[in-house]
Amino acid sequence: MAQFWKPGTEKPRLLDDEEGGVLFLSSSFSSSSSGYGYASIERQRQRLPVYKYRTSILYLVESHATSIVVGETGSGKTTQIPQYLKEAGWADGGRVIACTQPRRLAVQAVASRVAEEMGVKVGEEVGYTIRFEDISNPDATRIKFLTDGVLLREMMDDPLLTKYSVIMVDEAHERSISTDILLGLLKKIQKRRPQLRLLISSATIEAKAMSDFFQSSKRRQVSEGEELRPRLEPAILSVEGRGFNVQIHYVEDPVQDYVQAAVSTVLLIHDQEPAGDILVFLTGQDDIDVAVKMLTEEARSNGKNSSGLIILPLYSGLSRAEQDLVFSPTPKGKRKVVISTNIAETSLTLEGIVYVVDSGFSKQRFYNPISDIENLVVAPISKASARQRAGRAGRLRPGKCYRLYTEEYFVNEMSAQGIPEIQRSNLVSCVIQLKALGIDNILGFDWPASPSPESMIRALEVLYSLGVLDDDAKLTSPVGFQVAEIPLEPMISKMILASNELGCSEEIITIAAVLSIQSIWFSGRGVQKELDEAKLRFAAAEGDHVTFLNIYKGFLQSGKSSQWCHRNFINYHAMKKVMEIREQLKRIALRLGIVLKSCERDMQSVRKAVTAGFFANACRLEAFSHSGMYKTIRGSQEVYIHPSSVLFRVNPRWVIYHSLVSTDRQYMRNVISIDSSWLTEAAPHFYQQQQQQLNPIIH
Ligand SMILES: Nc1ncnc2c1ncn2[C@@H]1O[C@H](COP(=O)(O)OP(=O)(O)OP(=O)(O)O)[C@@H](O)[C@H]1O
């Protein structure tokens, strides 16, 4: 079991006090808040640290084109600043104030909270938009929360974002690809629309670097009558003060197994600490499922340590209803344990959370443009993330954060900020978005952090071979424009378009929905044999994609039963999410004129449609390889079929994969067998047949 420094000794520190040793006292507010007292919402708002800065913030927004606001987690940036702007008149005359978030869950939660504070219904004066869900009213919505990706999509219809008077880019430290593209484009828009105000906010952003980015725009010649224009150099405001104290505890020695350590820590808190819910940060659906199972079994076996625990997973692959459970009040005498990925890391306030357990890891993308391989890897988080995680406690009363790494590691080894996603990702989706927005010179685009030219060129090549870009690197019509319109990876979008011609759109839309979530299988330790047996019941000789179709059919025939899922080691929540995404994709397909049609048993059409999207991921089994070694056609990389695939050990000669994961080797996940002749048929720009040998044209 992980050993922590005990509270009361000199070791526990308060949030952010890792270097100096000076203990901060809680700032201006320390008593009641929603659910814990009788203060009116107005009084609660006035107690937030940001309130003292209301006038300064409004002055800066008035006088500067760009303002950067840095303030502790919980100081009130996200919920309050949009309201201040509205109160000051920035939403008058039909204008709208936008506030972007990197994550969907945060968008929904923050919109509900702000609507509640303003005493209005979500979808009216306060609204939100996330991919596939628009809860706003163009005539009534004055404050709109949205993901940064959605705001980018809005630019396709309205390139200058004319309806917005102020755009607040919140949690900018996360530096998601969409945030970076957005920052680059907003800087461009400001040159054309000087009235637009930008407000960049975060608890942990490197304000100076961000300011330099916005500063670097060339000074415009100010002509007569322009004195009222805002100043171009960005203003930086630091909001002092914090919510309630969060005591930080570190482990004394590094832990071997962070899932096991997280479970033991939850039991330790439950046993020794007063009432209050617990939020645990793990990395993904797989280790969350394992932790939920370990805790549930502990509770079932009536371990005295676990009675009264309500254990809830939280990750993006869960259905909306399942995610909403984490917001429901905890019944008296119970303790809620939410086990989450980093989707709960920023902007969320979960009312009862008093304790946070931070594994120190998250799943992150890493892309190698030389091999053209992108992996999702469990990697250490940054200090900025660690602070955000700790900040989920102490929002409504004092809290504690248990870090499953040593203080020495945090201080000396953890990086201050993560690497921006744009520098460690495949850029296919990013390039198509910029192209759709009419940005032709992508290499010359003004990025907050430049992606590597190799990654850009790789992306341009793939889009060209998908038929999305033409010889002049412009979007093709109609394919390029249609692919850009579907809010999915371009390869999946292309697969959907191809299914229309092949008469299998019903099947391909199901496959696209399954590929959009991490896994539909239940993951658990010690149940591998049962899981493998369950897979065999659905396994299709063609591969995983066709197996998904069998599972989906079985799920429908069972009447969407949770018991059926349980018996077959299928994650019921994930299946519900698949249903949700499938419905949304159907709507988009119809809008694009795709005819919904089933190919019944003709799985060749399905495999050809997958090939039309994913031909770049084709691999050939090495002749005489007894170890199941494949080589990618494009980069001659050594890869293997993942043990979770139904084609593991089957090893067909030619396969296509959806994604790669790297552990001791590069493993292909979600694999389908193909006929090599389909590759030249689907991508004549990409492959050529030379003397019985299939070769990539683009290396
Ligand atoms: N749903 C909610 N229920 C109760 N109180 C809430 C809720 N949302 C926010 N609050 C209160 O408002 C405070 C400020 O939240 P807000 O999200 O605006 O802070 P922030 O500075 O943006 O923090 P972060 O950087 O963590 O997103 C919280 O600490 C909490 O006290």
Automatic annotation (TrEMBL):
<dbReference type="InterPro" id="IPR002464">
    <property type="entry name" value="DNA/RNA_helicase_DEAH_CS"/>
</dbReference>
<dbReference type="InterPro" id="IPR011545">
    <property type="entry name" value="DEAD/DEAH_box_helicase_dom"/>
</dbReference>
<dbReference type="Pfam" id="PF00270">
    <property type="entry name" value="DEAD"/>
</dbReference>
<keyword id="KW-0067">ATP-binding</keyword>
<dbReference type="Pfam" id="PF21010">
    <property type="entry name" value="HA2_C"/>
</dbReference>
<keyword id="KW-0347">Helicase</keyword>
<keyword id="KW-0547">Nucleotide-binding</keyword>
<dbReference type="InterPro" id="IPR001650">
    <property type="entry name" value="Helicase_C-like"/>
</dbReference>
<feature type="domain" description="Helicase C-terminal">
    <location>
        <begin position="262"/>
        <end position="438"/>
    </location>
</feature>
<dbReference type="InterPro" id="IPR007502">
    <property type="entry name" value="Helicase-assoc_dom"/>
</dbReference>
<dbReference type="InterPro" id="IPR027417">
    <property type="entry name" value="P-loop_NTPase"/>
</dbReference>
<dbReference type="InterPro" id="IPR011709">
    <property type="entry name" value="DEAD-box_helicase_OB_fold"/>
</dbReference>
<dbReference type="InterPro" id="IPR014001">
    <property type="entry name" value="Helicase_ATP-bd"/>
</dbReference>
<dbReference type="Pfam" id="PF07717">
    <property type="entry name" value="OB_NTP_bind"/>
</dbReference>
<dbReference type="GO" id="GO:0003724">
    <property type="term" value="F:RNA helicase activity"/>
</dbReference>
<keyword id="KW-0378">Hydrolase</keyword>
<dbReference type="GO" id="GO:0003723">
    <property type="term" value="F:RNA binding"/>
</dbReference>
<dbReference type="GO" id="GO:0016787">
    <property type="term" value="F:hydrolase activity"/>
</dbReference>
<dbReference type="Pfam" id="PF04408">
    <property type="entry name" value="WHD_HA2"/>
</dbReference>
<feature type="domain" description="Helicase ATP-binding">
    <location>
        <begin position="58"/>
        <end position="223"/>
    </location>
</feature>
<dbReference type="Pfam" id="PF00271">
    <property type="entry name" value="Helicase_C"/>
</dbReference>
<protein>
    <recommendedName>
        <fullName>RNA helicase</fullName>
        <ecNumber>3.6.4.13</ecNumber>
    </recommendedName>
</protein>
<dbReference type="InterPro" id="IPR048333">
    <property type="entry name" value="HA2_WH"/>
</dbReference>
<dbReference type="GO" id="GO:0005524">
    <property type="term" value="F:ATP binding"/>
</dbReference>
